[in-house]
Amino acid sequence: MSRFFVDKEQVMDDKIIITGDDVKHIAKVLRLRAGEELFVCDKCGTDYHCEISEISSDCVSAKIIEKAENTAEPPIRITLYQGMPKSDKLDYIVQKCVELGVCTIVPVITKRAVSIPRDSEKKVIRWQRIAEEAAKQSGRGSIPEVADVVDFRTALSQMQQSEALNLMPYECEKDSKLREVLAKSDKREINILIGPEGGFDEAEAEAAKKAGVNTVTLGPRILRTETAPLAVCAAVMYELGDW
Question: What does the DSSP 8-state code read for residue 26?
């Protein structure tokens, strides 16, 4: 059944008003009609099973049949600091990491970044749209945020200021394993810093260590920048999440 997000203010006592681009999608793409059912989430963890009452050119009115707490949000909060990859790889990373349960994605410009977006504001809007579609598809109870693009120093500062466990997969790390670091911590917030193509510059790795970031090995094989975040997020979700 189709799923949509609305703001809390659009939820009334016995009905929900859907506006914006979703109206066209409901009427023109899905070709839903009055009497058909859909799911709506208020972005705050509550799902509503609804029946369409009326469709107009600018809104869809849906009667609430039943409401329930959303159970798809993970018990841990993962923030992904992703080194900017080239081409459209970040589209893929955003989509898959949202499906895995990531709560926030922060694009990071590093020394070895191949692609530095000139129109970052437009890019963020695009990535946020991808995050919303992935959240719909995976049944999330909220829409993960894609934050503004930051430089490496700012990313480290944000990680330091948080109370999360800070992790950075690093190909030169040979001893510290992800599972061991996770086992030593009881924190339910995790920051994960991933490098771009070519990995982290040595000076960046040293700066991260001085900032208290735990460098970890992902084994003997070097993963691509679009593979590493999925592998780490999946591993963290398995160890600490709802898997």
Answer: I
Instruction: Please tell me the pTM assigned to this model.
Output: 0.93
pLDDT band for 119, please (50, 70, 90 cuts): confident
Distance between CA atoms of residues 130 and 95, nearest Å: 6
Report whether 204 contacts 163 (CB < 8 A). Answer: no
Cβ neighbours for 29, distance < 8 A, ≥ 6 positions apart: none
Whether residue 117 is predicted with pLDDT greater than 90 in this model: the reply is no
* Structure confidence by residue, pLDDT tens digits, 214-225: 999 999 999 999
Q: Which of 108, 107, 113, 118 is nearest to 145 (CA)?
A: 107
Dist. CA 140–CA 39, nearest whole Å = 12
Structure token pair of residue 56: 């107009």
Domains of the chain: 3-69 (2.40.240.20), 77-240 (3.40.1280.10)
The Cα 24–Cα 213 span in angstroms is: 46
- The three-state secondary structure class of 222 is coil
* Separation between Cα atoms, residue 65 and residue 242, nearest integer Å: 28
Q: Is the dihedral of CA 192, 193, 197, 200 positive or negative?
A: negative
